[in-house]
Amino acid sequence: MHCSDVLEDSDFSPLCFDEDVMNDDFTSSVEVPLCSSVPHFDPTRLAMDAIYESKKEFSFNLKMYAITNFFQYRTKSSSPKVLHVICVDPDCLWAVRGVRLDESGLFQVRRFDNDHTCPIDIRQANSRQASSSLIAELIKHEFDDLSKRAYTPHSIMRDMKRLHG
To answer: Per the structure, how many domains does the chain have?
Structure first.
């Protein structure tokens, strides 16, 4: 699946490139975008060639994708320029690799093997991607207006189950 496939059935807009470097399937021979409007991709989807504003956003989207699709992954390699994750089952072929585009800080999905070849019970045993930092990111908007109500740990658990399964 290419980024253009995701874009056709959604309200995302692709990155802006000069017309002379754009080809028919929304991929570019030039790695650096020429405008600043980077789309915010739906974290419940992942697509080949998708571009994220930073490694942090790419990592957040990977975690949300894993939680939404009920599987786990582990990091095979990580550096400022590359993030490569694979399924927790060593025999599974599922993998995603993102790389930084030049010095812009943008991250692009360069490899996406979306087929899980592992048993479902191995994938769904735990939810290792539901870290405290991810949950904090998901609920921080609840603390914008502290005058409404106390947001208790019980409320957090209830909301996480309701919204994310």
So the answer is: 2
